[in-house]
Structures are given as C-alpha cells and as structure tokens.
Amino acid sequence: MLPDLPENMSAEQIESYIEAHDFVPVNRTVQVDDNLYQYLIDSSVREPELLKQLRAETTLYHMARMQVSPETGQFLALLIKLKQAKRILEVGVFTGYSTLSMGLAMSDDAKLVAIDKKQMWLDIANRYIKRAGLQKQIQTRCGKALDVLHKLMKSEAGTYDFVFIDADKINQLAYYKQAKVLLKSGGCIAIDNTLWWGNVAKKEFTDKDTQLVRELNAYIHQDSSVDIAMIPIGDGLTLIHKK
Ligand SMILES: C[S@@+](CC[C@H](N)C(=O)[O-])C[C@H]1O[C@@H](n2cnc3c(N)ncnc32)[C@H](O)[C@@H]1O
C-alpha cells in the first residue's frame, strides 16, 4: 500500500520540509545474521571442484583464514565475466583461491598477473594454476607489490580492466593509487577486508590495521574520480569504478 501523501503541501513547503530534516536511509530491510548469511552461502555458492580442493589443502597451512571466502571468490568471478576483463591484476595471492576464482572465469584471450611477496605461497598457487591449465594465462610474480606495481606503471599504465587488492594493510592506500594508474578508464578495482571484522565501525578498536582500513575507506569515499560501492560480503569488499 502506498503511504499517505501530505495533503495540500506546495512544492516550496516540501522543499523547506526536506531542508529542515536529516533523513537517514530507511530502505534497509534485511538484517544479515549468521543464520541468514549461511542461507546466502548455501543457496548461491557453486564452488568448482578444484577450488574446493585448494580450500581443503589451505586449511593445512597456518594463516588459512587469509583466503577469500567461496562467496567472495564467486563474486570476483562474476565481476570478471560481467566486465569481460582481458587484463587482470592481483595484489596478494596467498595459495591462489582468488587468483583461480578469477582465472577460471576469464576468457581464453585474457591474462592475469598475480603478485605475492612469498614464493612458498606462489608455489602452491602455481600447482593449482597448472592443474586448471591456466599457466599460459596466469603469470605469478614474486616480489614486494609496491615495487612490482611501480615497474608495471612504467610500461602498462592505463591498460588493465580489473585489479583485485588483498594484501598488507600498511600499503593498501598506495596499492589503490597505483592500481588507478594501471587501470583503463572504465576499469574496476575490488579491495577486500574493507569492513575488517566489523571493527571499522567500533570506536573501541584503535589498533593500527583497523585505523589503516578506516583511512583507506575515507580516502576512497572522498575520491571524486571514481564511483564506489561497499559490499558486505566476506570481510567487506569495496568496488571501485574508474571514471
Ligand atoms: C590475505 S592474503 C591473500 C589471500 C588471497 N587473495 C586468497 O584468496 O587466498 C595476503 C597475501 O598478501 C601477501 N603480501 C603481504 N604483504 C605483501 C607485499 N608487501 N607485497 C606482496 N605481497 C604481500 C602475503 O604474502 C599474503 O599471501
């Protein structure tokens, strides 16, 4: 049923009513608790067998929780398809779950460059990349991401369609700025962990990482050269479209 319309209000009266009030968004209808989030996963995630195996193997290693969640991996895959991304860049590979999620979704003529500072993680990722038959399309590079991105900026600025950032928080803002240079106009960046365990919204959390994520979010929020959306999936994923 439609709400009652204010009777006999002139356009001017409506304008001054709007000016006199602060309006909070009222169109959030879903409270996502653990139960509903599990439903979301159960009724939408279709994890390929190879990714299932990679996720299982990763539980053997310490820091397994660094891996993106299956629903985040699937969302990245969908973005790659929607964008028809041909040139993809990833910062923070770990054992390769997000790399492979995007790699399995990209077309035969697409290429992905994936950066991590630890060869031991790239060795695992490369094993799965080979099993997927994607070794010609996915190139892993070992090094500090700031340096690798800096080198790429010299010859490949403005050539990438999609960048996924999921590495150390201390350099995240620098990665964002570098990624924007590397991106084509119309390209897209996705950044993981932007809701950081939900701690970003809790004042009592004043640790370095939480503050760095807040700073990044604030910076992106005021950046008028991009369009943005913050998605409450996994640990929070911000999507950025370079105008
Ligand atoms: C959260 S994990 C990435 C998870 C991965 N996206 C996945 O789905 O499994 C972060 C990764 O960033 C890498 N990393 C951290 N600091 C880095 C740096 N300065 N340069 C390059 N890689 C870095 C770590 O070695 C780690 O593998």
Structure description:
By secondary structure, this protein is α/β, with parallel strands linked by helices. It has a single domain (30-242), classed as Rossmann fold (3-Layer(aba) Sandwich). Helix content is 42%, strand content 18%. The protein has nine helices and seven strands; from the N terminus they run ααααβαβαβαβαβαββ. It has a seven-stranded mixed beta sheet with strand order 3-2-1-4-5-7-6, sandwiched between helices. α6 links the parallel β2 and β3. α4 packs parallel to α5 (97-105). The two termini are 39 Å apart. The model has no long low-confidence stretch (mean pLDDT 95). The protein binds S-adenosylmethionine. Residues 66-68, 92-95, 97-98, 115-118, 121, 144-145, 166-168, 171 line the site of S-adenosylmethionine (SAM).
